[in-house]
């Protein structure tokens, strides 16, 4: 039996040193302490990812500009498109809200696939994609085609009582693009790409005697001690600054979280939309919109909207406050529960954009008129700002700070026993 060479990896979450095989084939290496994925042996190579990215790029013009569904309004067909909803929202005075929707539904998906194709082009011309890889790692969480797909279903339920709905054949392009982007998320491995383009930065041997350093940006475990002209410790591979103190990181999280929590107040008190029917205008807040769905008998849709627009944003804020206080006051709580809560915040954060996507679709379908009209309320901007700020807060909260509190507690417990 051939013995595989072992390398030393430091877990990006709990900082545990783990020995793993140098090359994994159809296997995944997880940290034995926190179960964080260290290496993926089932990731696709760059060429295969580029083919899927090219297919998505071909589909995007159809998915973004062609009708996804349409209604028959007094004998006049009205079509809903992703771009049309953003444009109508912008020209009717809600430019900032439209920009947030544009960023997540148009700009981020296009940038995501273009970055993958750019990396492939840089490989062909022999150029190293340092900044391209860094930007690709940061933009993934802002690609929200899957959230928009659910918003499409919610908007259809919301409009069906006003007019008959027909789904366009072009919806298939949007669905296929969503599936392919989701596939790319699961198969692309930035750590593998870094190792491919920078082969001179080899992993450490399993018997390396000294504590190594870890770069949280490119996930590289290394032993070099590189200092720039300003005296800052930098990663030798991606050149990221590694000397940002935990105090500064926490200040960034606190600032974004407090601002997001403040935005949640007007987001829930002010109307988020107003629907006019035959001269009668009804304004809905987030909660009243859920109650309206329940009165219509659409309990499943009411549950989706309640979870995405009310339960998730408030739970995100509460969990982030708890984790920050746990770090500050060094609470001796279950570390595994805290890490699960942090993973929950990372996973559900983007789904809060569901309500804004529904508003964009409604704007695209229900134009202002004497019989039936729809407009966005003042709460939409505050709600979108709260979603963005809490996502920024969660992305800046480093799990290693929670683990360090846990390790300190374990060390004190052992010293007490001794």
TrEMBL record:
Source domain of life: Bacteria
InterPro entries: PqiA-like, PqiA-like_proteobact, PqiA-PqiB_transport
Location(s) in or outside the cell: Cell inner membrane
Membrane protein topology class: Multi-pass membrane protein
Segments traversing the membrane: 50-74, 94-121, 142-159, 165-185, 253-279, 299-329, 341-365, 371-394
Protein name, as recorded: Paraquat-inducible protein A
Lineage of origin: Bacteria, Pseudomonadati, Pseudomonadota, Gammaproteobacteria, Pasteurellales
Gene source species: Haemophilus paraphrohaemolyticus
PANTHER family with a match to the protein in the record: INTERMEMBRANE TRANSPORT PROTEIN PQIB-RELATED (PTHR30462), INTERMEMBRANE TRANSPORT PROTEIN YEBS (PTHR30462:SF1)
Record has Ubl conjugation as a keyword: no
Keywords of the record: Cell inner membrane, Cell membrane, Membrane, Transmembrane, Transmembrane helix
Family affiliation: Belongs to the PqiA family.
GO CC term (a single one): plasma membrane
